[in-house]
Write a structure and sequence with these properties.
This protein has 135 residues and is an all-alpha fold. It contains six helices and no strands. It is 80% helix and 0% strand.
Length: 135
């Protein structure tokens, strides 16, 4: 499989997983440690999901091709957020400081993720491959 993708692409994938894991770890772990067990709201759910995403990204460093759905999710949610939320905010009232930071972070993911994804591998193994039988 590595020969199909190439060693450079594998290292780029690992770097992307590490970048995501580091970014999520640095921003999410302090909130989890400081707020754990105190209250439940949407922020605690988001932090838990992001920590799960962080841990899956760490697993992607070891298994870069097996964990490609993590990078696809990274790309898809960021594109969706930019189009469905950031763009209407920008067109209506403009972006506040927090939204501007999110747009920057999402734009980085939307630019970098497609550059590291092995598109021919994804087409071959995800789109053209036969589906797993239901029985």
């Amino acid at each position: 499989m590595i020969d199909e993708v190439g060693k450079v692409r594998i290292y780029l994938l690992r770097a992307m997983y590490a970048f995501i894991a580091f970014g999520l770890g640095v921003t999410t772990l302090p909130d989890i440690v400081s707020g754990s067990g105190q209250f439940a709201d949407s922020d605690t759910i988001i932090n838990a999901i992001l920590m799960g995403f962080c841990l899956l990204s760490l697993l992607g460093i070891k298994y870069p091709l097996k964990m490609l759905p993590v990078l696809l999710l990274e790309l898809i949610w960021k594109v969706f957020w930019l189009l469905a939320y950031a763009l209407p905010m920008y067109l209506n009232n403009g972006l506040d400081e927090y939204a501007q930071e999110l747009v920057f972070a999402c734009a980085m993911g939307v630019i970098l993720t497609p550059l590291v994804l092995p598109w021919s591998y994804l087409v071959t193994h995800y789109l053209k491959a036969p589906a797993t039988p239901w029985r």
